[in-house]
């Protein structure tokens, strides 16, 4: 899965071709041994597990970058390269 951002130890990836498992535009967030899937439109966690404070960071990041994430999702759905998105600072 292509990494699109890294912040506070959280690695954010986007991979369109697993959409059969998660039938909505989404990202994967990994922190240490934990991984979760977040829907882009709602920023809700739809699968997996992360520490509570990391969930809040990922949700805030999604809200800030929702348009960029949807643009990346559209590119990935057409098999095109996606772009990196700024981390939280």
Number of helices: 2
Strand arrangement in the largest pleated sheet: 1-2-3-4-5
Oligomer state equals: single chain
Mean pLDDT, nearest integer?
Answer: 93
Major β-sheet profile: 5 strands, antiparallel
Based on DSSP secondary structure assignment, what is the total number of beta strands? 5
Structural class: alpha+beta
- The low-confidence parts are none
Strand content: 25-35%
Span of the ends, CA to CA? 23 Å
Cα Rg: 12 Å
Summarize the helix and strand pattern as letters.
EEEEEHH
The structural domain count equals 1
Shape: globular
Helix content: 25-40%
Describe the structure.
With 89 residues, the protein is of the alpha+beta class. The chain has one domain (3-77). Helix content is 28%, strand content 28%. It has helices spanning 52-64, 66-77, and strands spanning 3-7, 10-13, 26-31, 34-39, 45-48. The protein has a five-stranded antiparallel sheet with strand order 1-2-3-4-5, covered by helices on one side. A hairpin with a 2-residue loop joins strand 3 and strand 4. The longest helix is centred in the middle third of the chain and has 13 residues, at 52-64. The protein is globular and about 35 Å long. The two termini are 23 Å apart. The mean pLDDT is 93.
């Amino acid at each position: 899965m292509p990494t699109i951002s890294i912040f506070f130890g959280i690695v954010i990836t986007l991979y369109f071709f697993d959409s059969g498992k998660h039938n909505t535009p989404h990202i994967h967030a990994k922190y240490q041994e934990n991984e979760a899937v977040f829907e882009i439109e709602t920023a809700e966690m739809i699968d997996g597990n992360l520490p509570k404070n990391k969930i809040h960071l990922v949700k805030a990041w999604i809200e800030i970058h929702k348009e960029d994430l949807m643009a990346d999702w559209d590119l990935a759905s057409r098999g095109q390269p996606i772009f990196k998105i700024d981390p939280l600072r």
